[in-house]
Amino acid sequence: MAKEKLVVIKEADLTNNCPECFNQDLKLTFYQRHTYGRLYDRTTKDVNHEIKCKKCNSTIYPVTWTEDIERVYEYYQKMIAPDRASIRFTSLFYILTLLLIILVAAGAYIYLEGII
Description:
Layout: E1 3-14, E2 26-36, E3 40-53, H1 67-79, E4 86-89, H2 91-113
Antiparallel strand pairs: 1-2, 2-3, 3-4
Keywords: Membrane, Transmembrane, Transmembrane helix
Transmembrane segments: 92-112
């Protein structure tokens, strides 16, 4: 089973007011999803975001954003540079592929030589 992990791309401290407690300590974080399996590691193009208040620890959802928060969010969204989507194979994948090639070659050799 593949494990998913959200990797932080960019964090920014915002000085906008929190809609819950009206404090000026917000943190905007952008995440990119990475999937880790036994045979491959995949970087996806999915980018998520989260805005949290540092004082009341509440998550600020887009429904409650003010125009100022939206403007700052759009600015930082243009600044992020996520890793491009890719797949990296693990050494287990290469070992299994090599063993499969050896088995097919041995089977073909035995069949052509008529040993069995």
